[in-house]
Design a protein that fits this description.
Length: about 350
């Protein structure tokens, strides 16, 4: 991170964020409440963004197949809720189920991506988008027994949104919550986020982690150095998938609901956009870039909603979200093409 320089997406989003803060002040909005929410949003969405780093660093590109890991996490949470596991025990079991399921899904996903080297982003997009309809059949036909999860009429098929109110809703948000005046600091939530950041930091300092970076920077040289390319890529993809699964568990406990069916489709692009805003070029990526990009993007989303409602243009929020999310990805692809980096 030496000689770190701000890139155009960061400058644009930062300037826009400053404008939104100024508008919030002019409109007499409670900036403290928005600050409190921004800290929750950082972690709520940040783990999904962190999950992109191993695949980026191994040279597999931006993980548009993020729904694969997300679905693993959703299945893990559904199992915990089905068995009526509550509190920290319920959340821990969700994580444990997610670990097992995402390891399997990540292994299969990795094997597929190893067969399409150089086209991982396109393949990941199609895998993610095709896996969702397949899982829609699962959500409809799986023999879950907890009535709170099922449609009230007929008792067959899971609801699109399953409430976590009686299970592990806000279990991390409220753990170790510190109040300093009107400012609330979700220590438990931030601690979990820090643990995942620390894991990634230490991982990239292990032998396999350094091999991951070497493969991403120069695969031919890594191969000549005796590194098993396919195995290294497979491990990175599995880790990305597992962290994505953990990410949706953390997201769901903050949101208060498990969102099924087509909801995972909308989660990959904002995560990719966030890491690009943080400064990633689509190749080697640092943890700091994921944190910075997530905070900038989510803060912008957070501020744009009340401002849009205040100036009576509620549609503006979704327009801005879509424009910035896809615009940043397009910008990154254009820059990468200009640099001659093949996706």
């Amino acid at each position: 991170m030496k000689n770190y320089r701000l890139k155009p997406p960061q400058i644009i989003i930062s300037a826009f964020l400053i404008l939104l803060i100024a508008l919030s002040y002019i409109l007499h909005m409670d900036l403290v409440v928005l600050l409190n929410q921004s800290m929750v949003k950082l972690v709520m969405n940040g783990v999904l963004v962190l999950s992109l780093i191993p695949m980026l660093n191994v040279g597999a590109g931006m993980n548009f197949g993020l729904p694969v890991g997300i679905i693993g996490g959703l299945v893990g949470m559904c199992l915990a809720v089905n068995f009526r596991m509550t509190g920290f025990y319920g959340f821990f079991m969700s994580i444990l189920f997610t670990l097992m399921i995402c390891t399997l899904l990540g292994w299969i996903y990795g094997l597929i991506l190893n067969r399409v080297k150089g086209r991982e982003e396109i393949a990941g997009t199609f895998i993610g988008f095709s896996f969702i309809p397949l899982m829609n059949y699962f959500w409809t036909l799986a023999p879950f027994q907890n009535r709170e999860m099922l449609y009230p009429i007929g008792g067959q098929g899971l609801r699109p949104k399953i409430s976590l109110e009686n299970y592990f809703n806000h279990i991390l948000d409220n753990f170790g919550l510190i109040s300093i005046g009107n400012i609330e600091i979700p220590v438990g939530l931030i601690f979990v986020y820090a643990i995942i950041c620390l894991f990634l930091y230490l991982y990239f300092r292990t032998k396999i982690g350094r091999a991951t970076i070497a493969v991403g920077e120069n695969e031919a040289f890594a191969k000549l150095s005796g590194i098993n390319i396919s195995q290294t890529r497979l491990i990175a993809i599995i880790i990305s998938t597992i962290i994505a699964g953990f990410g949706i568990c953390i997201y769901a406990q903050s949101y208060g609901f498990i969102q099924l069916y087509d909801e995972p489709l909308s989660m990959a692009f904002p995560a990719v956009s966030a890491i690009l805003i943080g400064g990633s070029t689509g190749k080697k990526t640092f943890i700091f870039e994921a944190i910075l990009g997530t905070y900038l993007l989510q803060s912008m989303y957070l501020l744009s909603v009340p401002i849009a409602n205040e100036i009576l243009v509620p549609e503006l929020t979704e327009i801005l979200r879509s424009f910035i999310t896809y615009g940043i990805i397009l910008y990154a692809l254009l820059v990468r093409e200009r640099r001659g980096i093949n996706s």
